Amino acid sequence: MNKDRRKRIQEICDILEEQLAALEEIRDEEQEAFDNLPEGLQATERGQNMEECAGDLDSAYSDLESVRDNLVDILER
Q1: Any idea what DSSP says for residue 43?
Q2: Crossing angle of helices 3-35/45-75, nearest 10°?
Q3: What is the predicted pLDDT for the residue at 39?
Q4: Less packed terminus of the chain by CB within 10 Å, N or C?
Q5: How far are the Cα atoms of 3, 12, 48, 52, 67 from residue 28, in angstroms, in the given order?
Q6: What is the pTM of this model?
């Protein structure tokens, strides 16, 4: 891979790092908001939606992290 393509991939990795940090913050906030609900409200539709969103955000974080890791692997070749 040439220098220009490596540089562009590194720029994407840098952007992904920033976005991972932002996504992690949102995920943690959503999980904390759910955790702070009284048990009775956690069982409601709203509470279940919050918990599901936190789980989906966690999945999205993991997926994005995998993309970043794959790109880093490419750069290390």
Answers
A1: T
A2: 160
A3: 95
A4: C
A5: 37, 24, 16, 13, 21
A6: 0.89
